[in-house]
Amino acid sequence: MPQSGTHKKRHISSSNKTELCLYPPLQAPHIPIKKSSRPRGVSQSTGGKKALTETARKKPGSVHKNDNREQCDESSSFSEVKRNKKGQLVFEDHPEFCPNMSPKEVLQAGSFGGTYFRPIYSSITKQHYKDVHKELPQDWLQGLDIHKQVSSAVYREEVNTYKVKCGGSLEMWESSGWIKPQDPYGWFQWYCRFYQGRRTEDDARQISRWAKCAGVKGRWRNNLITKVVRAGRRFADHSVSPVVRQTLQHWGYRLTEEDYKEGAKRVKPK
User: Fold this and answer.
1) Where are the domains of the chain?
2) CB proximity list for 191: less than 8 A, separation 6 or greater
3) Between 20 and 30 A from 233 (CA), which of 31, 39, 51, 85?
């Protein structure tokens, strides 16, 4: 996906490319959890010191099957995040973060060409990762072909909702400084963990990235609205910018009629 700060559209051409569309891309070394209020009904992860100590003992180059499994087991009974009248998710401790697609909905809709949780080597943590999708709640993956739609090494356009390919490589995002050790796969991994109740010092940065992409003033949300207006089409016409629509979906957002009408007021004539 176009990354804030780079704005370059790149395409995936091999199994080593990440899923991210127009914009960037689940934990290894654990960032200390901030002591702050958390959403009602959502548990906050614990065991930070233990997780960090165990991770630190692992040698570079070893395979991490799931560094966050203990945390996710603890949060497996988390309450679903509530929505407001607009259908946006409500995180009481971060009201500025209001995607309208949950991580489960993003995966179930068809995203990342089916490659997001493929095995990777992280140049940030110097570790190999595999089976990271196993930390997710089982119902998020219900009905999906894991090897084709979740952890595939091969990018498949037909898996995506809008049947398009888009994205940059994991290596590109790492070299750009967008990937942090706690979430070596990238933004969507952070989102999955944040949704389940984890809170870390990286939250503000990740939420800011979302806002620049899919927030009210987000680059790609408004790019899509502008194109729909100028094409004289309906807001849900998938023939208008399917790549941007897929990108926004990867960031937990799908254009609604209400958001479209509000954004269209700001579109200048050609």
Assistant:
1) 48-201
2) 99, 103, 206, 252
3) 85
